[in-house]
Amino acid sequence: MSLLALFLRDVRLAWSAGGGGPTGVIFYLAVTAVAPFALGPDLPLLSRLGPALLWIAVLLALLLGLERVFQSDQEDGTLDLLRLGDAPLELIVLVKAAAHWTAAALPLLVATPLAAILLNLDGATLALTLVTLVLGTPALALIGSIGAAVAVSLRRAGVLIAILVLPLSIPVLIFAVAAIEAGASGRAVLPPLALLAAMSLVAGVVAPIAAAAALREID
Length: 219
What we know:
Elements: H1 3-17, H2 22-39, H3 43-63, H4 68-76, H5 78-84, H6 89-118, H7 123-150, H8 158-185, H9 190-216
Helix pairs in contact: 1-6, 2-3, 2-6, 3-6, 3-7, 3-8, 6-7, 6-9, 7-8, 7-9, 8-9
């Protein structure tokens, strides 16, 4: 199976099986729609907390499809073929993480302007939030691939994956929100944005190695 065919297959399966695409977008918009009711009619407060709420909603939405990144391949024997194939397992993990990002994160980016309206965000804050999402969500997808690989042999491993992934995702959220707050206060946004991009680049190297090592330990 070529890497491009694997990528397209995983994107198609993620959309057809749920957890990515429409399901993630509905969950994302539902979380952002509930937030104004919880915070009350204070629009300045809603605008100030809006970017953080968007990031939390994105993180939770990306968790929905992680359980199926490797588990369906394990169940039907495809993972064994991939492990025995010519392509390095690290590269296969990278392709599957890219497919998860395309199927689950990219639709969230498209839906973010609508979510921003619900949270009373202005145009400048929305633009900066989108930049942080573009830079940071690849790191979340790659970190998620580690949790999915560790839990691949377990049934109903969604909670375990969340326990593994959420602590590792905290630095991404911290620097993403820091960049947005810096922009809102007139401070330099490039340092936190650079750190956010660096996290995605480091995750692109470390996560495939860690996930591939976990997959090789499967009996």
